[in-house]
Design a protein that fits this description.
Blueprint: H1 2-38, E1 58-68, E2 73-82, E3 86-90, H2 93-97, E4 104-107
Antiparallel strand pairs: 1-2, 2-3, 3-4
């Protein structure tokens, strides 16, 4: 019947939109965090169109200092942000290059980057 046809079509459209929304939310959140840290202009408000989804590539990688509460010391860590916008912390760059598991893995959703300790 017509109602089932409309319901089925709506479900397909919403499922497709949901997949796109999940991808775009991660991109938008990462850009907001990046602009908070780096400064500069505002983020992009429109949907981002890509020919290929950066599969197998890193969006960002580099060294950073991590404060460890248990011994109150700063440790140098290697951070990697792959195409899925998950922040991964490794002991070192060589640990990342060897494919070892990350020490910390943070899904970007729901976090805010602080640029100072105040």
């Amino acid at each position: 019947n017509r109602r089932e046809m409309i319901t089925g079509r709506t479900r397909r459209v919403m499922r497709d939109f949901g997949d796109l929304y999940e991808q775009q939310y991660a991109v938008a959140l990462f850009n907001v965090v990046r602009f908070e840290i780096e400064g500069g202009g505002g983020g992009q408000s429109q949907l981002l169109h890509r020919k290929d989804p950066l599969a197998g590539r890193n969006i960002f990688s580099g060294n950073l200092f991590q404060y460890l509460e248990e011994n109150r010391k700063w440790r140098n860590r290697f951070v990697s942000v792959p195409s899925g916008y998950t922040i991964n912390l490794y002991e070192s760059k060589s640990a990342h290059d060897r494919g070892l598991h990350s020490k910390v893995s943070i899904d970007c959703a729901g976090y805010k980057a602080l640029t100072s300790m105040e």
